[in-house]
Amino acid sequence: xxxxxxxxxxxxxxxxxxxxxxxxxxxxxxxxxxxxxPIVTAVLSTHTGGLxxxxxxxxxxxxxxxxxxxxxxxxEFECVYSGFLGxxxxxxxxxxxxxxxxxxxxxxxxxxxxHGKPYRTYTPEMCRRMGELAAVADLIxxxxxxxxxxxxxxxxxxxxxxxxxxxxxxxxxxxxxxxVALTGVELADGAIANLGYDRDRGDYWRVDCVYVPxxxxxxxxxxxxxLVGALLSGDSLPMAIExxxxxxxxxxRTTFSYGSDTRYGVMLESCLGWLxxxxxFDRYRLL
Length: 287
Ligand code: PXL
Hints:
The chain is α/β, with parallel strands linked by helices. The chain has nine helices and twelve strands.
């Protein structure tokens, strides 16, 4: 029996303003009673999504000595979770962390882009190497843009038929991970849904979302963090996807109701309490 909260090695940047990466990962997982050990790849003044020239300090050189220190201390992690990365070298270091903790749940959020386009810091070589991270993952959490990049297929801004969605999930899993959570998918029946696939069980899942006509940075980080916290606390994959979906709905709708600048991210602070309350889940269904 684990006599302490589950522990996650979270390899991400810290962006001071804009509510993404470690600034949302830490409070989200802490609220779910999971200990986060931030392994900081870089410190930025803001995220890179339209807030002007960013002040940036690269910490890549600290990643390997940090791992060596944890190994000297014999610290155990139940999960290693990576996200936005700034260079090929950082991808190499992430691979070292995953290899160092082979029994930990390996979660890769293959942050690379959105709305059909890669983020400007992601070179084609970076995108290709993100596939190497996906290959060692137990769970990946791409949006549809990232799924298309990982699969090397063109992004089409059209609703997906059920068979297409299932094929994308299965092909993503063939890259390595047993579990796939695919976010923000528009389905041919008109729903926007977050989808899941468990290869070992052969089950495909969908959790439909309430549509809000705005998009905020950091929501992918919050989604993956809730998923990590939920899975480490014993949720099934569909329960975890529903928990993450409902939490984001609350955070996005709250933020949208204030009409605040979308670049500032979602009002996580106002919503974290929900993550600490008991919930029953009845919105997941087989895809
Ligand atoms: O939310 C992903 C993310 C993380 N870190 C930085 C980012 C972004 C998305 O734009 O710019 C620095």
